[in-house]
């Protein structure tokens, strides 16, 4: 079973004009239906099994959309906006798809009645512009605060991002870790300086944050037991050199007719290896990391000289070590001088659950940290990683762009009210269109209610009333099956998420509305023109 929504190639609509538009809108609707139920703290997760039988459990819109093999050209737009939301701000991926789908759904009757798509697009753009102004207006600026206050705020944002995920039970625990991890970075907050490692087993609360670089101990040969496992002020050689004796047949073919000759070849090999090892030893390094294998001879050699070594270190870990500790990755043993060695205050190899980890702490150059996640099943850990990614992105965003709005549908209800009020002041088709978009925005609180099993109509009525009376931060209260002031409840989201989500959703809707014909070129391998009589080319002269 392929996890795809059946929008098969054969069924692709090739009509033009209105029917084409309507069919595109319908296709988007079925995508929206696929992710609809995942929204919010009470959203459900999706189990997706791909063609190779790999199962993924996720609540993240972008991840789900990526895994669904969507082939409908218009519906793919939605996948793209989810991905871009993920890359740009990291959270709000389900919301953006829902909003785009709902905008389209609300304007569909107008398309069917023959309103020109350009008119609709113009109205959407106008509505978007009004929303942007309002969000910027309403967003609560986090003006220069004390460190403690800033921290509390960041933790709240992280907790809101995580409250819809599988790990929501542990969100307080993880929001502390996430904020620690992000605050340990330098001003640019580079995402790749936070490493996430997963060790199955143990409970989620055993997860820990290591300030510095950490990675799983690599495969090692006999001899490593004797190497020291902990150093202070160590010098690290980062290599891309193979320190292993090759089986002779791998390298070349040599014809020898006696044992002596053969011995010479072997001796030469050993000599080359020993020369390399000696150079590394001379450089003064006491930890040797290599991307390529380090064999048993080398391991023994290093152990005898009190040097720790690890081969087959994954490239990203090697790079992160290099960024954090300085130095350079060397591809030849000839120029290993003290100035290309990385430095760190403390190195040790430590047991974490069933795995051993190499930890580098007190790195002088870049600020970096590594999250070591513990937990039951593999899929569970993967989803935890994705959820933490959302939370990390949110914290980074909030630090960079420090203003927040209330979540839980509060901001959407307020924008909806704004548009409805505005629509009453204008005349013509635009009035109806803007009102339709206002209705579209209500999808977020409505879906939050639906997913929690609440009576959406009832709660939305209450919300409309509150907002009309000026309660601008009122949204769905997931715990009480009621409405509440979500700003006071600390359901906060960075305003940039909402800005980005609305812009992307409106743009996607406009794009789908502006397409009125799909022309598909034949697939590669198929005859270029079936049934045509021109196959032979013109210059042949004589008919066949
Ligand atoms: P997305 O992929 O769009 O981030 P989520 O499943 O994370 O989707 O759901 C996010 C929505 O859930 C947002 O609209 C957010 O305001 C809302 N939300 C998060 N936490 C709460 C809460 N505690 N109470 C009410 N709404 C919440
Ligand atoms: Mg989210």
From TrEMBL:
InterPro entries in the record: Chap_CCT_eta, Chaperone_TCP-1, Chaperonin_TCP-1_CS, Cpn60/GroEL/TCP-1, GroEL-like_apical_dom_sf, GROEL-like_equatorial_sf, TCP-1-like_intermed_sf, TCP-1_chaperonin
Domain of life where this protein originates: Eukaryota
Composition skew (Gly residues), residue ranges: 530-544
Enzymatic reactions: ATP + H2O = ADP + phosphate + H(+)
Main subcellular location: cytoplasm
Function summary: Molecular chaperone; assists the folding of proteins upon ATP hydrolysis. Known to play a role, in vitro, in the folding of actin and tubulin.
Family listed: Belongs to the TCP-1 chaperonin family.
Xref: NCBIfam families: chap_CCT_eta, thermosome_alpha, thermosome_beta
Protein name (Swiss-Prot/TrEMBL): T-complex protein 1 subunit eta
Organism listed in the record: Drosophila erecta (Fruit fly)
Gene: Dere\GG13138
């Amino acid at each position: 079973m392929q996890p795809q929504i059946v929008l098969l190639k054969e069924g692709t609509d090739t009509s033009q004009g209105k029917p084409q538009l309507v069919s595109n809108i319908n296709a988007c609707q079925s995508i929206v239906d696929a992710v609809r139920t995942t929204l919010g703290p009470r959203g459900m997760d999706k189990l997706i099994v791909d063609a190779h039988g790999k199962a993924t459990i996720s609540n993240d819109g972008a991840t789900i959309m990526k895994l669904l093999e969507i082939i409908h050209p218009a519906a793919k737009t939605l996948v793209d906006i989810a991905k871009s939301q993920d890359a740009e701000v990291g959270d709000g991926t389900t919301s953006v798809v829902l909003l785009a789908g709902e905008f389209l759904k609300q304007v569909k009757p107008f398309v069917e009645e023959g309103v020109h798509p350009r008119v609709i697009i113009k109205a959407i753009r106008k509505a978007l512009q009004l929303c942007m102004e309002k969000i910027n207006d309403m967003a609560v600026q986090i003006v220069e605060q004390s460190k403690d206050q800033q921290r509390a705020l960041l933790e709240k944002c992280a907790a809101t991002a995580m409250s819809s995920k599988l790990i929501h039970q542990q969100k307080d625990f993880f929001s502390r870790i996430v904020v620690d991890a992000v605050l340990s970075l330098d001003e640019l907050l580079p995402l790749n300086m936070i490493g996430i490692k997963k060790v199955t087993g143990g409970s989620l609360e055993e997860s820990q944050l290591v300030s510095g670089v950490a990675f799983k101990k690599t495969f090692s040969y006999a001899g490593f037991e004797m190497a020291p496992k902990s150093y202070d002020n160590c010098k690290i050689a980062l290599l891309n050199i193979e320190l292993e004796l090759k089986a002779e047949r791998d390298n070349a073919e040599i014809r020898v007719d006696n044992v002596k000759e053969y011995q010479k070849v072997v001796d030469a090999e050993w000599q080359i290896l020993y020369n390399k090892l000696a150079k590394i030893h001379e450089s003064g390094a006491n930890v040797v990391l290599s991307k390529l294998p380090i064999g048993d001879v080398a391991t023994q050699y290093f152990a005898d000289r009190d040097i720790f070594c690890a081969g087959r270190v994954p490239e990203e870990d090697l790079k992160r070590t290099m960024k954090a500790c300085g130095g350079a990755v060397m591809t030849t043993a000839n120029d290993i001088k003290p100035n290309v060695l990385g430095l760190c205050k403390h190195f040790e190899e430590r047991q974490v659950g069933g795995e051993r980890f190499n930890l580098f702490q007190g790195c002088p150059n870049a600020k970096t940290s590594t999250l070591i996640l513990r937990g039951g099943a593999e899929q569970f850990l993967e989803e935890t990683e994705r959820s933490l990614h959302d939370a990390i992105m949110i914290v980074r965003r909030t630090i960079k762009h420090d203003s927040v709005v209330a979540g839980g549908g509060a901001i959407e209800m307020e924008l909806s009210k704004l548009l409805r009020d505005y629509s009453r002041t204008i005349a013509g088709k635009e009035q109806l269109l803007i009102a339709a978009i206002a209705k579209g925005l209500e999808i977020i609180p409505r879906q939050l209610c639906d997913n929690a099993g609440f009576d959406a109509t009832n709660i939305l009525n209450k919300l409309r009333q509150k907002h009309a009376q000026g309660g601008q931060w009122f949204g769905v209260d997931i715990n009480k099956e009621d409405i509440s002031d979500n700003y006071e409840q600390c359901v906060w989201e960075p305003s940039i998420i909402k800005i980005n989500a609305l812009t992307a959703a409106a743009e996607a809707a406009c794009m789908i509305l502006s397409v009125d014909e799909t022309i598909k070129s034949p697939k590669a391998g198929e005859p270029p023109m079936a049934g045509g009589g021109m196959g032979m080319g013109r210059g042949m002269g004589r008919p066949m």
